[in-house]
Design brief:
This protein has one domain: Porin (Beta Barrel), CATH 2.40.160.200. The protein contains two helices and twelve strands, in the order H-E-E-E-E-E-E-E-E-E-E-E-E-H. The protein has a twelve-stranded antiparallel barrel. The longest helix has 20 residues, at about 1-20. It has helices at about 1-20, 160-180, and strands spanning about 25-30, 40-45, 50-55, 65-70, 75-80, 85-90, 95-100, 110-115, 120-125, 130-135, 135-145, 150-155. By secondary structure, the protein is of the alpha+beta class.
Length: about 180
């Protein structure tokens, strides 16, 4: 038992060292189970809270705010209402940086991130999808099963703007949640 624990700790430390060496970053989104409205915490690999997300309630269309731990707004996400397919806008410092639009497809879900040239594709029912740019994966998302509340792991490629990519992931989660309800 002791050898297994030491092996696990060393293996985890090696993986974290290797990913830092490659300048890769992992974040984890944990949805709060008993909360009024949308509330998420975003954690780093070490388990420390890095960001938090709060949604506005009683509004037309979904609105989410991404904050750092000092309470500074890093991104604002708003849903455009009265559209045929879901459409969201991401703003940073009052400037729109991306428009996420669900593509019209029959058998699979795909999203375009206008303004950045990104595409989102994968198995959304199993919460396994990728964000790509020019065919290169810049972020991959997977759901951790058997956890209290929804927990997602986001693996970023080196040099990716994690705030904008995290905002795209939050939009996809909002679209999936709307389809479930």
């Amino acid at each position: 038992m002791c050898i297994f624990i030491v092996y696990t700790i060393r293996r985890t430390a090696f993986i974290m060292w290797y990913e830092r060496r490659e300048n890769k970053m992992n974040l984890y989104i944990k949805q709060r189970v008993f909360s009024w409205g949308d509330k998420f915490s975003v954690y780093d690999e070490a388990g420390f809270e890095k960001y938090y997300v709060e949604g506005e309630i009683f509004t037309w269309g979904k609105k989410l705010h991404l904050y750092d731990l000092q309470g500074n707004e890093l991104a604002f996400i708003r849903q455009e209402i009265f559209t045929f397919l879901p459409k969201y806008h991401v703003s940073r410092n009052g400037i729109e940086v991306a428009e996420i639009v669900k593509e019209f497809t029959f058998f699979k879900h795909e999203y375009s991130v206008n303004g950045l040239g990104w595409q989102v594709h994968g198995d959304f029912w199993d919460h396994e999808y990728e964000i790509t740019s020019n065919g290169q994966t810049i972020a991959a998302v997977s759901k951790e099963w058997l956890t209290w509340g929804d927990t997602y792991e986001i693996r970023f490629a080196a040099g990716v703007d994690e705030i904008t990519a995290l905002s795209v992931v939050l939009v996809i989660d909002a679209c999936i949640a709307a389809e479930r309800n």
